[in-house]
Amino acid sequence: MSNGFYKNRRLKSFLFFAVCLLVSTIPHIFHFKNFFYITFSISFFIACYGLIVISKNIKRTGIETNNDKKIIDDKLPVLDILVAARDEENVIQRLVERLFNLDYPTNKLNIYIIDDGSADKTPLILERLSRDFSQLKIISRSANAGGGKSGALNYALKFTHGEWILILDADAQLKKDTLQRLFTFVHNGAWSAVQLRKSVINVSKNFLTTCQSMEMAMDAIFQFGRLSVAGVSELRGNGQLINKEVLLKCGSFNEDTVTDDLDLSLRLLLSKAKIGILWDPPVMEEAVENISALFSQRQRWAEGGLQRFFDYGEQLFSKKIEFIQKFDLTYFFILQYALPIISMIDLILSIALFESPSYWPISITAFTLSGIAVWFGSSCKSEGPVLQNLNLMMMLVSLLYLSHWFLVIPWVTIKMSIFPKKILWKKTLHTGV
């Protein structure tokens, strides 16, 4: 895509924010008598679809847990595992040792660690590990090579020769039989890509890590439900398996976005490639442990999420995807990105004008659906670290935590409307818990 294609993001961000501003302001200017009934009707509609999506998880009997149909070693494909690592001295040794302990034929498994200009001890650790594991393949890039994580992955693709690519973060932890079960799931579902459910390792570290664990559980519930209802699902970066041929046809990883996984998800959807969601086994990872790291991470996620819709919005309303998929994308775009902006402006105007908020029924509906998904996702049987003592108080706390998106989304949208974007790899610090 041309540079002009991406320059339009600032204009689209401004127009998007302007529309949200207009929508939130109109009720306070014209004071419609029956506006409450309009918002109540919209809330009811939102609740109906949201509950349908969540309810699809009830029948999730788990083709992924069916161990009777495991693929024999001779039929397993050649797999390349790619890990883009920058300054990962705390976790890289543990990762490599565990990857070489996975239950998979050694002649069909290639492990590539991309040292993307690390300034800490990562290169020294990798050099030592390469002597212990002769099959370990280390790819080095300079710190100013460009393209962020996407650039590192695209560079590594030149050296791969497997049929499938598994992308992991440096803090990832997999169960020993994950790869066997993963390809059993691929074979049974004929997927072009699969996202492992993400689970938090340091769930009990503090309040933030506990809430992030519940948030990941909620996300998995919505992901599985959306896939079941509309056939729309998304990759999450860590723990994503992709057929290499499909990946190359989609244009590999986009180096002009801050979230390569979300961008690739839409391109796969437009190419009619199927993304499966594997509930168990999960990929386990560290959650950030302080407010500063949380907001830095969430701003990047929010910006990447908006970028993909601004980049591919016109194509999403073409004949390339089905009506139900268009509806699902529109539904979640409004709830995830438009509602936080509208609600915050509505609240500010209400305080300034001494009036009641106009859109509170929709906001409460969205939070209620999130609470149901949090409860269901945290309570259902799953492998990996689990939440303890999930009660009404913890659910309310998790909803309070989720309200941070109502600050992040408006702030990120305003920034995108004003400042030009430089693609930088703002990595999350991994401590090696």
Description of the molecule:
The protein is an alpha/beta fold and 433 residues long. The protein folds into two domains: 1-65 and 204-233 and 292-433, no CATH class; 68-203 and 234-291, Spore Coat Polysaccharide Biosynthesis Protein SpsA, Chain A. It has 14 helices and seven strands. The chain has helices at residues 3-30, 35-55, 92-99, 122-132, 148-157, 178-189, 207-230, 244-249, 260-270, 291-316, 323-353, 360-379, 392-402, 405-418; strands at 79-85, 109-116, 136-141, 164-168, 193-200, 240-243, 275-285. A seven-stranded mixed β-sheet has the order 3-2-1-4-6-5-7, sandwiched between helices. Helix 11 (323-353) crosses helix 12 (360-379) and helix 12 packs across helix 13. The longest helix is centred in the last third of the chain and has 31 residues, at 323-353. The model is unreliable at 62-67 (pLDDT under 50).
The total count of strands amounts to 7
What's the story with the biggest beta sheet? 7 strands, mixed
Taking all Cα atoms into account, the compactness measure Rg is 22 Å
Spatial gap, N to C terminus: 40 Å
Counting helices, strands and paired strands, the structural category is: alpha/beta
Write the element-wise H/E pattern from the N-terminal end onward.
HHEHEHEHEHEHEHHEHHHHH
Number of domains: 2
List segments where confidence is low: pLDDT < 50 over at least 5 consecutive residues.
Answer: 62-67
Shape: globular
Largest beta sheet: strand ordering: 3-2-1-4-6-5-7
**What percent of residues are in strands?**
5-15%
- Number of helical runs? 14
**Can you give the mean pLDDT?**
90
What's the helical proportion of residues? 40-55%
